[in-house]
UniProtKB/TrEMBL annotation:
Keywords: Carboxypeptidase, Hydrolase, Metal-binding, Protease
Gene3D superfamilies documented for this protein: 3.30.70.360, Zn peptidases
Active site: D81, E143
Pfam families the record matches: M20_dimer, Peptidase_M20
Matching CDD domains: M20_CPDG2
Protein name: Glutamate carboxypeptidase
Gene Ontology molecular function terms on file: carboxypeptidase activity; metal ion binding
Domain Peptidase M20 dimerisation: 178-269
Top-level taxon of the source organism: Bacteria
């Protein structure tokens, strides 16, 4: 059990509700910063040493809180942004409790986990709990779009750290994450030649048809046995049925298990660019998150977490997950990283998003225990 008193699941849910009801779409820096302001005020009030990095490129700020101590820190990183637009609460996804489930936009991915991390650090500071190492807490604004502004401070904080804890949502059966696939993102732009679809069909070069052929090629790059998947979405192209479309395009998602496969697949997708018969294809992008590979030091960290979980009355299985997180960045630096330490639930990015709220106290205790005791 952690030394820090964290409260009951009911108490944690009551405060978490305020986070969920403060909508924070990634694209609204003001909204994200509003929740950052609340976190900063609470952490300052209990003696946290705060650094706040101003947002840029339309994203919110990054908040960093240090606790006292010497030596390599324990880094904990969670994001406050969600995929849900303003008005979601007032429309299809109000905050509500139905039995053991609490519903609301972003509650599972990942406001519950980020709140657990924030609450643990706040109470460690408030109660002046002695931890074996200092703690560095990062709350970030843009994970849902690939962490374009927060990746650098996350990696900077992780360099030289003893371990990194990521309270992303727990997986099936409450699993934490000891490995993740790497993620690549690409944009394909196709330019053709416009013409009248009836009178001058032969003069045109359809960008939509060229894109369709590329989509089939990219779909064919999926190799499930090798752990490689591709997905094309969204797509666009054309203006009117009677006009040969001069432009079309799409985005591509790539998932790979290893750095080597990432390099190979990146080269293949970028290699689709070129010109032929009036069609010009441009491909931009590349690997966005490196693969997060399981290592003996990560297994050691997991074993410590599993022991805490047992003390708190639940099992903690492991999972290798296809989705990426900020843990990909820190694991790729060689820092022991344990992910998926957030709350149980389901429905990330879906209308049925929810947590099993009665698990909040036990999961938070495991996270806090790790912060206190990793030596």
């Amino acid at each position: 059990m952690p030394q820090t008193q964290l409260g009951t699941a009911e108490q944690l849910l009551e405060e978490l509700r305020g986070w969920v009801e403060h909508e924070t779409p990634t694209t609204d820096a003001v909204a994200v910063n509003g929740l950052m302001d609340r976190c900063e005020a609470d952490l300052r009030a209990v003696g946290g040493c705060i650094t706040r990095i101003p947002g840029r490129d339309g994203y919110g700020d990054t908040l960093i809180c240090h606790t006292p101590g010497t030596g390599a820190p324990i880094v904990v990183a969670g994001h406050l942004d969600t995929v849900w637009d303003h008005g979601t609460l007032a429309g299809p996804m109000p905050f509500r409790i139905d039995g053991d489930r609490a519903y609301g936009p972003g509650i599972y991915d990942m406001k519950a986990g980020s709140f657990m991390a924030f609450h643990s650090v706040r109470e460690i500071l408030r109660q002046k709990t002695a931890t074996k190492r200092p703690i560095t807490l990062l709350l970030t604004p843009d994970e849902e779009v690939g962490s374009p502004t927060s990746r650098e401070p996350i990696e900077q904080a992780a360099r030289g750290a003893r371990a990194v804890l990521i309270p992303e949502p727990a997986g099936a059966g409450g699993a934490c994450v000891t490995a993740r696939k790497g993620v690549g993102r690409f944009v394909i732009d196709v330019r053709g030649v416009s013409a009248h679809a009836g009178g001058n069909w032969a003069d045109g070069r359809s960008a939509v048809v060229a894109l369709a052929r590329l989509i089939l090629k990219i779909h064919g790059m999926t190799d499930l046995d090798a752990g490689i998947t591709t997905n094309v979405a969204p797509i666009f192209g054309g203006t009117r049925p009677n006009v040969i479309p001069p432009e079309a395009g799409c985005e591509v998602d790539l998932r790979v298990p290893t750095i080597a496969e990432g390099e190979r697949m990146e080269a293949m997708i970028l290699g689709l660019a070129g010109e032929s018969d009036g069609i010009t294809v441009t491909v931009t992008g590349g690997m966005n998150r490196p693969p997060f590979a399981e290592t003996p030091s990560i297994v050691e960290l997991y074993n410590r977490a599993a022991a805490f979980a047992q003390q708190h009355g639940y099992a903690l299985p492991t999972q290798h997950r296809g989705g990426g997180s900020d843990g990909n960045f820190t694991a790729a630096l060689g820092i022991p990283t344990l992910d998926g330490l957030g709350c149980t639930g389901a429905g990330a990015h879906a209308p049925h998003e929810h947590i099993i709220w009665r698990d909040l106290a036990a999961r938070c205790s495991t996270l806090c225990g790790l912060m206190e005791t990793i030596d």
